[in-house]
Amino acid sequence: MQNGQSKNLENRTTDISKHKREGKTLHPPFNQLPMSPSSWKDDRMPEMLWAVLIVGNIKREEALDIFRKVADLVCKSTGLSDITHSGIALWSKENRVALIDLLKESHPETQKILQPLVIFPALPGYKEWKEILGEPSNEKEVADFLSKGVTATLWHQSQEATDCRWIKFLCEIHGGKIQFPRSMEETVRGVFEYPNYGDLRHIRPFIRASEIGMQMRNAKEQTNWPEKFWDSCLRSTLCSPLPRKEQRKDNIKISHNQIQRIRHFLLLHYLKTDKSTAIEPRHDTIFGFGFYALRLLDELVATNLSRGMIGRLALRSCVEAYITLSYLIKKDDGTVWENFRNYGIGKMKLSYLKNRDLKDKPSFIDEAFLKEITNEDRWEEFSDIDLGNWTDLDLRKISIEAGCKEIYDAYYDWTSSFSHGNWGAVREANFAICANPLHRLHLIPSVSVYPLPGVLEDVVKTINLILETINTQYADLNCKLIDEPKPEKISLWKRIYSTIRYRKMKKFLSFITGENKKRVKK
Length: 522
Known about the structure:
Helices cover 60% and strands 2% of the residues. By secondary structure, the chain is mainly alpha-helical. The strands form two sheets. A two-stranded antiparallel sheet has the order 1-2. A two-stranded antiparallel sheet has the order 3-4. A hairpin with a 2-residue loop joins strand 1 and strand 2 (25-27). The chain starts with a helix and ends with a helix.
């Protein structure tokens, strides 16, 4: 297996088949465990800010050496184990000063690197940190140290974050808070001699899982230091939207002329297969879906909105049209065709009646036309209004019965988010990630409108499926949408050469036809 494939498998999340269904909710395995989620970024990283600053601003080997000195201090002392800021604030003043002095003297740069701590008055044990480290003299340097440290450790599985979580875990072991059975001797040795012993592919996840399981000290809950840290960062630094990566463009070209040609083919085939002037629910519906989808595509191409939200709505409508058409053909029952048509008439009647007596009428509704088509098949007094669906099934079940569940799974859920204004659609269309690491990757509204991945290929694919389906019922349609070749790019010199050549040819032809001779005689 190639490295890329291996990495993808390692990062693969739980398949939907492994989720447990309860009613209409699917629960992933972790949500089925009796545990409360804990966030490294939001809650636990600010508690290890001293380690974050060190590991993010000096060489890793030097940072780990400092961490080992901290572990030795904890090991030689009594009652020390919690090296979070809230935990250190509960130490005796003597031990607290000893730790800060150790950090200050352990490396030529650590005093400057740790000085960002003193810009946070809410820091637990703030007094000793400020007295020993002193006031920072360079604001830009302080911001850089803080930004580098947070950036390196924000992702909970990064190497730097794992190093911080390791020293926290190791000190808990030295403090006697955690015991291990003999069967874990090799794993525990890997923790003590990290990162120089054992299989790190096993040791690193073990460290992270163990650190998550460690109970937070009560002092953290009292001081709310993590919340105050992030609030202070937000107030004192500016947001900066992260540029969105370029989204996939449409890889095909469809022109209005091609769509019109397909419409003409479809129209001719409709007229050719039309056998009666009576109401024909089956014939009209089958061809109607084709014209409906082609109009959606035509408007999509004309407005160049394939990469906008409206493109998603057009794709959803095409997919629903194809699934519904496939179901109707699978059933192929006269009553079902009539039910589908009558349901639509009832919906028109319902809209007409609701809007008829409104004082503030919707501007897009043509009440006279709506009434006219409501009465097309029969007088409206004989038309029922079905307040449910035209069939007792939802679209997912319809797709299963129609044999096109894979189309439903591939396209319908995400496009429906845009139709209903679900959060996922609102997020993708309107928000960007803040690039300021001190804002913990929060969302901010995007200044410009970002283009979304294009839907043109998917719309064309769905419409071709509709055209194929029509052909199975009324043979010899034989038309489909195809990618149109891009026009050849002609260089400027080639155009100049072609123009000169054309003029010479024109002059030669005029000579052959005798025009030049006539001019000479004159």
